[in-house]
Amino acid sequence: MAELLQRIDLVGLLAATLVTATPLTLAALGGMMCERSGVVNIALEGIMLTGAFVGYAVAFTTHNLWLGVLAAMIAGTGIAAIHAVLSISLLVDQIVSGTVMNILAVGITGVFYRNFIEQATVAGPGTLPHWNVPLLSQIPVIGPIFFQNQFVTYAMLVLIVVVHFVLFRTRWGLRTRACGEHPRAAETAGINVYFVRYVNVIASGALGGLGGAYFSLQQIGNFLPNVTGGRGFIALAAMIVGKWTPLGAFLASLLFAGSDAVGSRLQIYGVHLPIQFLGMLPYVVTIVVVAGALGRAVAPAAVGRPYRKS
Amino acid sequence: MSRRWRQLLISAVVVPLASVVAGFLVGALAILVTGSDPIQAYSALFAGAFTNHNAAAETLVSSIPYVFLGLGVALGFRAGLFNIGAEGQFYVGALAGVFVAFSVHRLPGIVEVPLALLVGMAGGFFWAGIAGVLKATTGAHEVITTIMLNYISFLLASFLVNTKGLLLAPNVSTPRTPDVDPAAVLVTLIPGSRLHAGLLLALIAVPIVWFLIERTTIGFRIRAVGFNIDAARTAGISVRRTIVITMGLSGALAGLAGIVQVLGVNKHMTDTVAAGYGFDAIAVALLARSNPWGVLPAALLFGALRNGASFMQLETQVSSDLISIIQASVIVFVAAPVIVRWLLRLREAPVQTLQITQREEVETTS
């Protein structure tokens, strides 16, 4: 048993799980801010893809990874802002708007990738540095998992706490949730529903954009078309399975990322198991959860419904 | 012209056409930003879609799956159901149908083809039906369940096509299913091209779906549920049954798209056969404003874009992904007619903003 554990390298596995869960958690946090205010966000995939691309493009041109991270977040807010205008002001169906943003992101990143990056011969900007937190990184087991990471992963750990605090401990969070549950009542109480929704949708873009930076600036140090590969939808799943709470979404992301990490390890060790079934885990769990087994996940009551000011 | 006809003309023709033009203008802007010449790029796009050798036939080939898929998604829209899972239903339909088509032998084509098509439709019906049943019984939102079912179907296809003893063909370099029985192949309409009899099926499917929606009892129920779920329930319509049947039929059309593509074009199945057709179908149905007849021109446009894009990328510096920018912009303009009205200074009564997803949740306690 001990030998097997050593062979599996449990600490390495857990560390890999935390890293893989990074973009999922960040995008899920973004989706949560958005949906808690009453706007569905299935554009997370497009937001992350755009963030990954713009982040890389800026880091590539300026040779500054940090500007890249910032640019990724700004690009995410850009896509989210279009989603906000369409779904809040122009009352477009939020699913339609989100779908359109995903298509648009594929178009924008594909077109500009071909013109500005694909043919470039200069070396890329590399990846964000690993930071070992003094002392803490020396702790056995905990250290290698939590305190020897790169920026985006640290940011995710901090943002889980921040988003939880904002949503459940501040006046802004109360207003956000009021807009998501009963916008008419919120407006009667003097809350500017449009403003609250705009800010939250745009904030979700920043979080999703940071999640996108994970792919191009932390993980591979390059951009490839469709690099996010559907992770935005797994993040959506994590948000739902986590019942629209930051901690829940983080745990769900860990579960999904963990199954991913286990799958790739089993493959390396030549265990013949159809990895496709392990890959199905996030999707099956999500269906089971929205169907109400495993404790029902209830979305904010007004989510998905355009609000017309009275 | 009466006011009513004028409004219909605006919402069904002027707004979609203006949206397409505006979409191409946005695309031109993107081309300019990348430093290429929009006229050159669009000329190549047009040549690749229509005037090159066999291009028109190839455009029709690409349009065929869009017709079936667009009809399927539009059918769902009419009941207020947002079927994002057309891509997955395409896969499951193709998997089910291809299994029949390569397993049967020594039967005449007149038997094999309909058999494979029916099994493909059944596969799509079943896969979308899962989302329908979940919505009807538990209220699980079909957008979420169909997204998840999409990914499950991709992995399922990957598993089946890559596993010995299941659908993997013996002695092939890239994993794929065995070839379908020659009798099950859809005949070629124009020798020397890939244009197959699926075109005729697509042309027949449009009036059938129109008739189903507008002239049958189930169609009436579909529209009633889409129009007002409470009124439908009060009128004695079983909302749950209508939801399951609508999702199923929507999926059956997507499954039909899958098996027609396999029998007409690929002749076998790989795990990448759909290549985004099902996702584009959402845009096709939106552009058609959920009208079966509108699906035809919308599918033709998307087929032309898809087909012309690769030639444009070959001839110019512009990436074929440009068509995604065009498609996204077109849908924005269609979905938010306010913008087009403002651009064209149309002073008619407001064109209704497209609203698809249910405003009311399905009552699951009653």
SSE blueprint:
The complex is a heterodimer of chains A (310) and B (366).
Chain A: H1 2-8, H2 10-36, H3 44-62, H4 65-89, H5 94-117, E1 130-132, H6 142-146, E2 148-150, H7 151-169, H8 171-181, H9 183-188, H10 193-219, H11 231-241, H12 246-268, H13 275-279, H14 281-290
Antiparallel strand pairs in A: 1-2
Chain B: H1 3-33, H2 38-51, H3 55-78, H4 86-103, H5 109-138, H6 142-162, H7 198-215, H8 217-227, H9 229-234, H10 239-266, H11 277-287, H12 292-315, H13 322-335, H14 337-344
Largest interface chains and counts: A-B, 50 and 54 residues
- List low-confidence stretches of chain A: none
Distance between the termini of chain B: 48 Å
Oligomeric state of shown chains: heterodimer
Radius of gyration of chain A: 20 Å
Order of helices and strands of chain A: HHHHHEHEHHHHHHHH
The number of helical runs of chain B is: 14
Q: What is the CATH class of chain A?
A: Mainly Alpha
Could you say what the CATH topology of chain A is called? ABC transporter involved in vitamin B12 uptake, BtuC
SSE succession of chain B: HHHHHHHHHHHHHH
Overall mean pLDDT of chain A: 89
CATH architecture descriptor text of chain A: Orthogonal Bundle
State mean pLDDT of chain B (0 to 100 scale): 90
Structural class of chain A: mainly alpha
Let me know the number of strands of chain A: 2
User: Uncertain regions of chain B: pLDDT < 50 for 5+ in a row?
Assistant: 358-366
User: Total strand count of chain B, please?
Assistant: 0
Q: Main sheet of chain A, how many strands, which sense, barrel?
A: 2 strands, antiparallel
Spatial sequence of strands, sheet with the most strands of chain A: 1-2
Largest sheet of chain B: none
| Separation, N- and C-terminal Cα atoms of chain A | 66 Å
